[in-house]
Amino acid sequence: LTSGAKPDISREKSAQLYEKAKTFFPGGVNSPVRAFKSVYGTPLFIEKGDGCYLWDADGNQFIDFCCSWGPLILGHNPAKVREKVIEVMANGMSFGAPTALENELAELIISNNKYIEKIRFTSSGTEAVMSAIRLARGTTKRDKIIKFEGCYHGHSDSLLVKAGSGLVTFGETSSAGIPKSFANETIVVSLNDKEALKKAFEDFKEQIAAVIIEPVPANNGLLLQDKDFLQFVRDICNENCALLIFDEVISGFRVGFEGAAGYYDIQPDIVTYGKIIGGGLPVGAYASSAAIMSNISPEGGVYQAGTLSGNPVAMAAGIAQLTELSKSGFYKELNNKTQEFADSIQRYATAKNYKFKVFTIGSIFWFAFTDKDKIQTAEDIDPASMEKFKMMHKELLNRGIYFGPSGYEVGFISAAHNKVDLEKAKRQIFETLDLVFR
Ligand code: PLP
Facing residues of 364 across strands? Predict the structure, then answer.
């Protein structure tokens, strides 16, 4: 990007902090994607967030479409969440004993979600999914699980597995340090591929404990599935007495209060939550029918625990945030706003004949450098297209627009992004597209 491109923002203080961070943390970060490895420049160290805005250590201001990777559906630092957290924190940070706040958050969730009867809080999405898998295995007395290529379910051993070649394969680990024997319990198939799923069930008859899917796959681009495929997954699980796990760590409370289960009206056996549920504090959860949940310790034999599970301060943030989401009209307004934003960017790109598509659901959107009308599997994404994302990412930062530092990541719109902010962002995105496609 040469003429027309904006000058680089100062990253002096961020760069200094990054150098120091590298002396403390592997790669200078506490979670890998933050290291900006797939985009230009060094990571920005964030100092403050307010509404839809972020400020970095050098004082640069951005409209934020990363929103802490999803949790911040009300935007940064919303007064209602902050005030509730401060109020609860005044009584102490953690007791390792039950509090009324856990009941309150559970009641708010369960009474507004017809797909679940009981819930257990954890401290992260990874923990929630890991526990859901153990619950499925303990309930069915079977060991193998099926996952889909391109779905991310956190970093537990049996889920850091990707597909090898061929129609149905044993997974190969996608991280060092995972025993091959663990990966052998995970079968990986392509999304949107009924035949592969059928074959997996035939090949491992009566061995499949569960199929786990992100019903809204949003960790490898936004690979929106047809309802027909999700229903097929539901049906084949029923036919084979396997459990269906919806990993709703992103889609839960995002595409609607009842998440993707409600959006598609498909009843999963176990659902996992994270991100939004904790209002920006570390909370995850898994939920199911009362019967299945009765297998969890101390009622049943499936062990799962946590020193900080149901932490009162985190519960307070969840209660405050979900209370706002449960108000009538919340999702309609947010989703309409997102649809308008996505539509208008798409219209611009189409009018200019750019090979560029905006995929969207709820308040999630994803920019794809493609001319395909649908992208439903990981293999449908051309890795070479990520070069364009890299250019776009850098130019947008220079124009005060913050996206997650990878073209495989989706963007989020929060209730705090108002019309003026979105207009401002759109103008910058249009001009950036003109530069990227010049
Ligand atoms: N499942 C899904 C669908 C996710 O998107 C993520 C995180 O991005 C996880 C699980 C893991 O959650 P956490 O990062 O809170 O451990």
Answer: 361, 412
